[in-house]
Design goal:
mainly alpha; elongated
């Protein structure tokens, strides 16, 4: 906003200057501003009667001989006889009743919300999120369980036993099945890769039972490869390890499409591929071996079980074990152009021998550590025996 001389009164300028210039005082204050005149407020209208007073005077003269009660005003209200006022009072009563019911409903709603929150806290203290999701499903098949739920299930399984644990599941408790618990004991990796997997835990789970194992014999028919001593969980772990072995030999047969098609089977064995499907989060990282390859690896596993004592005593070599396993796979239909069977057996048995020696060494170390009372002496004694 700009200040002009017009905004100052005459007494704000210096008087009798020699130079004749009209100059403002140093402390001049502008007081002249343009403004619109304020509108005058309207007076409220005078009280008007709906009935003309002149008409009322004429009527008073006309009916002066008739006695009647005079009212102070012609527009006096009659609340007891006015129908509109009666309707208003009824509406006010209904509004008050509805308001009272609404307040009661709100109180009930608050009580229900508090009760719901308390139930939610109580339920969440008993069950995890995936257990609550399982409760809302009619079928528990395909449910995913967290590590915390698996640990809880293992504790209940150890405390209640098989019958008690199955009874809890049959009663509707959201718990993983015994099969799922056994599979989770494998400590499946989350990498979806054979580079950093858990084959050591899987092989340790496949306990060697030499006293119950069948005598090794050559395989003439595909049905004879079935290992009766292997349970479902062991068969699943063996199938996964077979896929890992196939991944190890694939670079050596990459130039032969016939061999590659023979070792990869897709969904030929759905009964034993559950563990591989659980570990394969991306759907393309792990390999499902063919039926023929799985039969070869099972033959090698049977040979290892039969020769366990000889392996631990050191009276049999790795090459001898491979040759024994090869004798049992002569009738296999896998192509022989790139020695696929030999490579499969060598890779699998080499990994298996490492696990056997490690298991035996761990057992000796624990026994001698207890006897000697010293960890270093126990380790030395165990290594000395080996």
């Amino acid at each position: 906003m700009f200040m002009l001389p017009a905004h100052f009164t005459s007494d704000q300028f210096e008087l009798n200057r020699v130079d004749g210039i009209r100059k403002q005082k140093p402390l001049a204050i502008p007081t002249v501003f343009s403004h619109r005149p304020m509108k005058k407020g309207r007076k409220p209208p005078a009280k008007r009667s709906t009935i003309d007073e002149i008409t009322m005077k004429k009527r008073r003269k006309q009916y002066s001989g008739i006695s009647c009660d005079e009212f102070p005003s012609p527009m006096q209200d009659f609340p007891d006889e006015d129908p509109e006022n009666a309707d208003d009072s009824d509406l006010h009563g209904k509004v008050a009743e509805v308001t009272r019911k609404l307040d009661l409903a709100r109180k009930e709603l608050r009580k229900m919300e508090n009760k719901y929150e308390m139930l939610q806290k109580s339920i969440r203290s008993l069950f995890n999120e995936e257990q609550l999701n399982a409760l809302s499903k009619p079928v528990r098949r395909g449910c995913t369980w967290s590590d915390e739920t698996i640990q809880k299930g293992l504790k209940l399984r150890l405390a209640c036993g098989t019958n008690g644990y199955n009874l809890l599941i049959n009663c509707g408790y959201p718990l993983p099945s015994e099969r799922t618990l056994r599979l989770k004991i494998f400590q499946t990796s989350r990498s979806t890769s054979y580079e950093n997997d858990d084959h050591v835990h899987l092989l340790n789970y496949m306990h060697l039972r030499s006293e119950d194992s069948m005598s090794f014999s050559s395989v003439n028919d595909e049905d004879e490869v079935e290992m009766e001593e292997l349970g479902d969980d062991e068969a699943n772990s063996l199938f996964y390890l077979t896929g890992r072995t196939v991944r190890q030999i694939l670079p050596h047969i990459s130039g032969c499409e016939k061999c590659k098609d023979a070792v990869e089977g897709g969904d030929e064995l759905p009964d034993v591929s559950l563990l591989t499907e659980l570990k394969d989060y991306t759907g393309s990282s792990l390999i499902k071996p063919s039926k023929s390859v799985f039969a070869v690896v099972k033959t090698a596993e049977r040979c290892l079980r039969d020769q366990r004592e000889s392996i631990l005593k050191g009276v049999i070599t790795h090459s001898r074990i491979v040759s024994l396993a090869l004798e049992g796979t002569e009738s296999s239909d896998i192509p022989t152009c790139h020695n696929v069977i030999g490579k499969l057996i060598k890779n699998y048995t080499r990994t298996r021998l490492h696990i056997l020696v490690r298991e035996f060494n761990s057992k000796l170390r624990s026994e001698n550590s207890v006897k000697c009372g010293s960890r270093s002496i126990g380790m030395r004694m165990a290594l000395h025996k080996l």
